[in-house]
Structures are given as C-alpha cells and as structure tokens.
Write a structure and sequence with these properties.
Elements (H helix, E strand, L loop, with lengths): L1 H29 L3 E4 L5 E5 L5 E4 L26 E5 L2 E2 L7 E2 L2 H9 L4 E2 L13 E4 L8 H19 L6 E6 L1 H12 L21 E7 L7 H9 L18 H5 L2 H4 L9 E3 L5 E2 L6 H7 L9 H4 L2 H26 L9 E6 L3 E4 L1 E6 L6 E4 L2 H7 L6 H8 E4 L5 H5 L10 E4 L11 H12 L15
Parallel strand pairs: 1-8, 1-9, 7-8, 9-10, 10-13, 11-15, 13-18
Antiparallel strand pairs: 2-3, 2-4, 5-6, 11-12, 14-17, 15-16
Helix pairs in contact: 3-4, 11-12
C-alpha cells in the first residue's frame, strides 16, 4: 500500500513538473526576442588591424588610432578603420570596483525575466523565443545610418530563424532610443532631400512589439552644446553619457551623431547676464560663430586637423547642422499611418539637469562667454542675481543629462506612449537600476502600472 502511494505521489510530482516546464516553455515561446540598444559611447570601438586593439573605452588615447573621424565635405561618408565590438557590459579600472554598464540589465533579463542571450550570426533553435540580442554600433556615425543598420540586421535575423512574422521588443538607452524611433518610423530609408518635408511611413514598425525608451533625449540635450563649446570631462563611471573623459570639442566636432543630440529646433533657451531670453537658431552656423561656439574659430583648430580637413570643415559643419535639424523634424513628424508598436518610457526627474545657458560679455576680449553652471554664472556675473533665480532659469528636473521635458517630448513624440515610469536615478545608471529592471520585465510581460496598483508619478 505504501509503495502504491509512493508511486502515485511520484507520478503527481512528475506531472506537476512537466506542466510547469511546459508552461514556462509556452511563456517563453509567446515572448518576443529582446534587443538591447546602448546609448552614445556605450559600444566598444576596436581596431581590427591592430590585433583587435580596444580603442574605446580606454583610459588613455590610443597610440595607433583615435575615435576622431576624418573631416570631409561628405560627412556621411567619413570613415576610419574602427568597428563596433560588443556593447560595454562593465568596466574595471585599476583598484576600483567593477562598474556595471549593461551587464546588470542582461543578467536581470536572464535571472529574473527568463530570457537567454543569443548571437546574431549563429542563433540557436530558441533564438526567436525569449532571446536577448545586444546591438553594438559605431556611435560616432549618423543615427539614420545606424537605424538602417538595425532594420537590416533584424530582417536578416528573421530570415535565418525562418520566422518572417517575428517581432522584436527593444530596450533602448539614451541615443539608442532615437535610433529605434527612426527605424520604426522610416525603416531602411534615408532622410528626405533638403527642402522636402519628412513624412513617417512607419515602414519599420512591423519589426517591433514593445519599445522601451530608457532616458532617451527625444528633444536633445543642452549638455551636447556644452561639449561642442568646451569639451567634456566626465569620469569613466559615466562612460555611456554623451561625452566622456579625454573627449575634446574637436573630437565632438568630427562626430556626426553628436549634432543629432543637440536640442531640437525651438527647444533651447539662451539668456543674457540679466536673464533676458535671447532667441537663437542652433542650426545656423552664423549663430555659432557669433557666440564663439564654432570649434573652427578656435585658435587650436589649426593644429588639430590637416590642411585638407581644415578646408572641408566649414562645409562639413554646415551640412551636419542641417542634417541634424532635419533628423529632429523627421522624428517629430506625424502621419495617418496606423501604429501597432507600443512605446513605453522609463526615466528620471529627481536630479537638477541643465536646460539652458547664459552668455555674458568677456571684459577683456569683448567676446561672449557661454556658461552652463550656476556657480560659474555667479562668478562671471557682476550683478546680484540670486542662486535660486539662476537655478530656476538654468536647471529643470531630469536625470542629470536628459531633462524630463526632453525625455517625454510631448511636442516631438509622434505616438502617445503606453506608459511613463519615473525612478530616481542618474542617466548612466538607469540600465542597472533594479527597480527599473523589474519594471521593464513587467512591461515585456504585459503587466501594466495599473495592474500593479502604481501610477507613473503624475497621478495617472
């Protein structure tokens, strides 16, 4: 009798395990593959001709190659020998603890989300079911170029998997969100010729299920202008921020993608020393020359570039500003096309973030000095403007790099997001935040904020 009960109990346990396994397999089969798209500087750059030397990220500048692209009159054709390696998963610098960049997000999807990582070139039989694909790219190149590359890679992967109807979910951090939006809105198509109004066809939308925009600067970031004006010197912890350690204004000048991170037309605010707003067109090269923002006018420009590059620089600069303006207009454009892809926004609004700049006359040269920091402004300004007054003018809530206004982009997003989630975190650490990771997993599973009894922080 005891043996009978034991055998029966064993059969029940085995049956339950089988049902659970089958249920898990069914759940995996129902979930789209996930593509993780990093932000600017979030992919390795390697020199394949120098034993795959890692040129980026690197604490010191490469001795055999550099991240600066050559300057030509045809900026979209400017190339060097560097290629994208892997996404930057983590960094180990000297005796300091290892810094998570994107590996924590991948681990969360595998450990808590039930996903598994796959390879683009050699996917397994389960490559279309709850799989993770990382999309490293050369972040220096034009965003439209990388959006078209994304579309082609997804189409090629569907062909290899023999699943023509397969859709992909996307987790796109920072500039990766701009690439994804363009890919969905225009597919494998370039921007229209100058003078022609962009109209979204949503030709690439068929590739996507859910698109999570993680701290995406949908209306650009004034910090980008700061990089053009004076270069930036963020520490290696912020390696996936707009600009990082040892990146000068001349490097930024030569990076096409940098122009497309400038504040969208009509969104940038510039003040004089009395906090009177000045109307400027960021996409007019004459404005850059007037306020001293144009790196070409820097006395050091001559020693940084070859004679041929110096000759091509004005044409390169004007073309990239015009293209960046058209890129923003393309993302803001609307059409009557039916959109089925779901957009979900995840960002931060707890940190003071630069949203404007102040220009003041230099007493010695008579030229303009542009300031993006309240403390700098108070030192440069001989008038008694209070710190609170300055902060209210210069800063707005965000993640320290991208403002909540740019992130939500109510004037530019061409589709209404399905959800908007705010978590207090800095821009570079959004992918590694456990609360954000759990929220993204719920989004991918179709668990809404309302089902969890939450709101988006705005009472909705």
């Amino acid at each position: 009798m005891m043996r009978f009960i034991y055998r029966r109990s064993l059969r029940v346990v085995l049956l339950l395990l089988f049902v659970q396994a089958a249920g898990s397999a069914a759940l995996a089969a129902e979930r789209n593959p996930v593509v993780i798209i990093p932000g600017v500087t979030g992919s390795e750059l390697v020199n394949p001709k120098a034993k795959k030397e890692l040129v980026w990220p690197s604490i010191s500048r490469s001795k055999t190659d550099d991240i600066r692209l050559p300057i030509t009159e045809h900026p979209l054709e400017s190339r060097d020998g560097l290629v994208a390696g892997d996404v930057i998963r983590s960094l180990k610098i000297g005796v300091f603890p290892r810094i998570d960049i994107y590996q924590g997000l991948i681990d969360a999807l595998t450990d808590r989300g039930g996903y598994h990582e796959e390879n683009w070139e050699a996917p397994t039989g389960a490559g279309g079911e709850a799989a993770i694909y990382v999309f490293p790219y050369d972040w220096r190149l034009d965003n439209v170029h990388n959006a078209r590359l994304l579309v082609r890679k997804l189409e090629a992967l569907k062909a290899v998997l023999k699943k023509p109807e397969l859709k992909f979910d996307v987790i796109a951090h920072s500039m990766g969100g701009l690439i994804t939006r363009y890919a969905a809105m225009y597919g494998d198509a370039d921007l229209p010729a100058a003078g022609r109004k962009p109209t979204p066809t949503w030709a690439g939308e068929k590739l996507f299920g859910k698109i999570v925009l993680l701290g995406t600067p949908n209306e650009g970031s004034p910090i980008t202008l700061a990089g053009f004006v004076r270069g930036e010197s963020f520490g290696p912890v912020d390696v996936n921020l707009p600009f990082v350690r040892n990146v000068s204004r001349f490097d930024i000048f030569a990076i096409p993608a940098a122009y497309e991170l400038l504040p969208a037309p009509g969104t940038f605010r510039l003040f004089d020393a009395d906090l009177n707003e000045i109307e400027v067109d960021l996409y007019d090269p004459r404005v850059w020359k007037e306020y001293g923002w144009d790196p070409i006018e820097d006395p050091k420009f001559r020693s940084e570039f070859s004679p041929a590059e110096r000759k091509a620089a004005p044409v390169f600069f004007a073309k990239m500003l015009a293209r960046a303006k058209l890129f923003h207009e393309a993302l803001a454009a609307r059409s009557n096309a039916k959109v089925t892809a779901e957009f979900d926004l995840v960002g931060s609004e707890c940190r003071a973030t630069v949203d404007a700049a102040v220009v003041s006359r230099n007493g010695k040269s008579g030229g303009w000095t542009t300031l993006f920091n309240v403390d700098e402004i108070r030192k440069a300004n001989g008038k008694a403007l209070g710190a609170d007054e300055l902060r209210a003018a210069i800063y707005t809530p965000g993640d320290g790099v991208v403002t909540a206004i740019s992130f939500q982009a109510k004037g530019e997003l061409s589709t209404e997001p399905a959800s908007t989630k705010f978590v207090c975190e800095s821009h570079s650490r959004l992918p590694g935040n456990a609360e954000i990771q759990d929220h993204i997993i719920d989004v991918l599973r179709g668990v809404t904020l309302e089902k969890r009894g939450e709101t988006d922080g705005k009472g909705r």
